[in-house]
Amino acid sequence: MDAQGHKNTHKFDKIEIYAEGERSKAFDAVDKIRELQIGEISLPQLVAVGDQSCGKSSLLESITGISFPVGSDLCTRFATQIVLRRTDATDASAVVQATILPGPGSISKDATRKKLESFRHVFKESEFGPKEFRDIIIKAGKAMGIENEVDEMVSGKRFSDDILKIELSASHHPHLTIVDVPGLFHNPTKHQTEEDKVLIRKLIENYTEDKRTIIMAVMNGQINIANQEVFQMARIADPEGRRTVGVITKCDTVQPGDENVPMNIAANKVEYLRHGWFVVRNRSTQESNQRITADELRKHEDEFFKKDPWCTLDPQRVGVPKLKEFLGRLLHEHIQSELPRLAEEINAIIIDSTEKLGTLGEARTDLSKQRLYLTLLAKDYENKVTEYLNGQIGQILPESHPLKVRTRVQVLHEKYAEAMKAKGHSRPFKTMDGRDEGKYYNLEATEQVGEGLSEPRDIIEWISKAYHGSRGSELRTLINNDVVVCLFRDQAKNWRTVTERHIKSVVDVVKEFNSALLTRIITEETVRRRITMRITKEMAHSIAAAYDLLENLIEDEFGGILQTVDDDYMAALNNSKAARIQFRLMGNLVKEMVSQKIGKVSKSEETPKADVKHSSFDPAAALADWLGKATDAFASNNVAVEDIHDILKAYYPIALRRFIATVNSQVVERKLLGKDGPLRLFRPDYITMLEDWELNTITREDTQIANLRQELQSRLDRATRALEAANSI
Question: Where is the GED domain (predicted)?
Answer without folding.
Answer: 641-729
